[in-house]
Design a protein that fits this description.
The protein is mainly alpha-helical. It has 9 helices and no strands.
C-alpha cells in the first residue's frame, strides 16, 4: 500500500465518522512509534557512519551522546541538533528527527533556527554553526 501524504490523510480523517474504520484503513500511512534511540540507530545504519565519528563531530560529551543513542537520555533540542549535524544529516532528516523526538522542527523565521538551517545547508560543522550563533547573540548548540 502506498503511504498517503499529510494533506490527503487530513482530508480523509475529516470525512470519516468512524475513527476505528479510518485507523484500520489508513494505519500504514501514520507515523510508527519509535524511540529516539531506535530512530538514531536507523539513521546511523542507513548512512553507514560510526557512532564514535558522529559523536566526535557533534562536540558532545562521549558518555552523554552514547546515552542518547542507547535511549537512556533524551537530550534538549539544541544538543540533538548538534548530534544531527555531527551525523551529517540533511535538513529533511533533521526535521524528521526533531518530530520523532517530540521537538518542533526548525523554523526559518526563528533567528536561532535560521542560523542552524543555514549552517546545515552549507555543510558547516558544529563549531562553525556555534561561532555564527554566538556572533548573532544566540545560544550555541552545546
Amino acid at each position: 500500500m502506498i503511504k498517503k501524504d499529510t494533506s490527503e490523510l487530513l482530508r480523509e480523517l475529516e470525512s470519516y465518522s468512524d475513527f476505528k474504520r479510518f485507523y484500520n484503513e489508513n494505519g500504514e500511512s501514520l507515523l510508527q512509534k519509535k524511540t529516539l534511540g531506535e530512530y538514531l540507530g536507523e539513521l546511523i545504519r542507513s548512512h553507514g557512519i560510526k557512532k564514535a565519528d558522529a559523536i566526535r563531530r557533534s562536540e558532545l560529551s562521549e558518555v552523554y551522546a552514547y546515552q542518547i543513542f542507547s535511549g537512556m537520555r533524551v537530550p534538549e533540542r539544541k544538543k540533538l541538533l548538534a548530534l544531527a549535524v555531527g551525523m551529517g544529516l540533511k535538513l529533511s532528516e533533521i526535521q524528521e528527527l526533531l518530530k520523532v523526538s517530540g521537538y518542533a522542527p526548525l523554523y526559518v523565521k526563528n533567528p536561532f533556527d535560521c542560523i542552524v538551517i543555514w549552517g546545515i545547508c552549507k555543510g558547516l560543522t558544529v563549531a562553525e554553526i556555534n561561532y555564527t550563533l554566538f556572533d548573532y547573540g544566540e545560544e550555541t548548540l552545546g
